[in-house]
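in:
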């Protein structure tokens, strides 16, 4: 595929000149993948203190385009935007993108505490339209007065850091993006499903918001008994069960209309994945919808796999790599992996269990989202 074709997803032919300046010629395979589906921006922090809203993160915009770039919250412009800000950590990840080390931003706006949901978007200052072709906003549900978060150790175990506002941003954003994918693909909302399973709920990062949008219908399950017990005690809008490392579970067959698995297949070796696909099939009602994530091409851009790993993933369709587990007491720590799939592999193997309706590249953070349906004659 030629260079112009590779760049066409992001810019028209007239913009190729500045793209060539922005994109470093190093690591051509990662560059190609990023151009097709790579993550463009990320909201990492959202803080509300007193009467001020502060949002921080990074965004990959060429210097020549920064004058046209803008952020909004709930459709309103920020009072103050500091961009670009030095981000050497982002530069080390996206080392193949010129200017990535100066991709940070901090935005501030007055806060009146009357907004239940904050939505952060990127827009073109000149046209007012989304700056990137795939408009993927970030969200933040304003915490309720009696909200209780899991301990820092529990958050780190499933989330990777202990920052409270990042925990809320990620949980809110994942929930709302799942909802958007569901609406786009099926025309239904979360509340339209009588029974929802959150498989791999952890300490309720996403479950708390699912339960708020579909009260009385959500069941969370996880192998982490400590986190499950915490959820039982602190998140009364849903019910929770601990499950074994490998199926079957004690859940009744054909119990759920919607089954969600965020960042679970991303860490399982190949054979247990097939076992869990069978178990999810058993738990799903006829016609049930599944929302499952996997490490696809968008994740490859973030992980910087070496050339040999890229070749193995392409050849086999799946690649396992070591994962630095956060908690040595977590069940199955020795088999907990970073697992990468190709889209072709997902279509070939997961379609044996469910009908694949749509795959959204890089839709849940840097993970791909698969929307599936159980509509065969298997029991």
């Amino acid at each position: 595929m030629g260079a112009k074709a590779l760049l066409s997803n992001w810019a028209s032919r007239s913009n190729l000149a500045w793209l060539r300046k922005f994109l470093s010629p190093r690591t051509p395979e990662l560059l190609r993948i990023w151009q097709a589906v790579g993550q463009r921006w990320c909201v990492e922090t959202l803080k509300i203190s007193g009467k001020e809203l502060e949002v921080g993160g990074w965004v990959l915009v060429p210097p020549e385009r920064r004058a046209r770039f803008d952020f909004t919250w709930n459709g309103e412009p920020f009072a103050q935007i500091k961009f670009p800000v030095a981000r050497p950590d982002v530069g080390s990840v996206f080392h193949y993108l010129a200017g990535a080390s100066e991709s940070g931003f901090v935005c501030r706006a007055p806060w009146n505490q009357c907004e239940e949901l904050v939505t952060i978007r990127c827009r073109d200052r000149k046209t007012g339209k989304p700056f990137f072709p795939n408009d993927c906003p970030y969200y933040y549900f304003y915490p309720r007065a009696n909200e209780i978060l899991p301990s820092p150790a529990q958050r780190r175990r499933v989330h990777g850091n202990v920052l409270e506002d990042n925990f809320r941003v990620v949980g809110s954003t994942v929930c709302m993006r799942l909802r958007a994918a569901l609406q786009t693909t099926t025309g239904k909302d979360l509340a339209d499903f009588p029974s929802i399973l959150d498989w791999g709920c952890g300490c309720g990062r996403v479950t708390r918001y699912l339960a708020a949008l579909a009260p009385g219908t959500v069941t969370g399950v996880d192998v982490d008994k400590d986190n499950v017990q915490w959820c039982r005690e602190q998140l009364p809008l849903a019910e929770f069960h601990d499950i074994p490392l490998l199926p079957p579970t004690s859940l009744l067959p054909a119990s759920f209309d919607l089954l969600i698995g965020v960042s679970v297949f991303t860490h399982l070796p190949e054979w247990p994945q097939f076992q869990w696909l069978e178990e999810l099939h058993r738990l799903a009602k006829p016609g049930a919808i599944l929302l499952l994530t996997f490490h696809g091409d968008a994740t490859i851009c973030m992980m910087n796999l070496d050339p040999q790993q890229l070749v193995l993933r392409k050849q086999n369709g799946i690649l396992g790599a070591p994962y630095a587990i956060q908690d040595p007491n977590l069940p199955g720590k020795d088999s907990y992996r970073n697992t990468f799939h190709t889209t072709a592999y997902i279509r070939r193997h997961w379609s044996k269990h469910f009908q694949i309706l749509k795959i959204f590249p890089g839709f849940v953070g840097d993970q791909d989202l698969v929307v599936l349906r159980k509509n065969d004659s298997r029991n």
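note: The CA atoms of residues 175 and 206 lie 6 Å apart.
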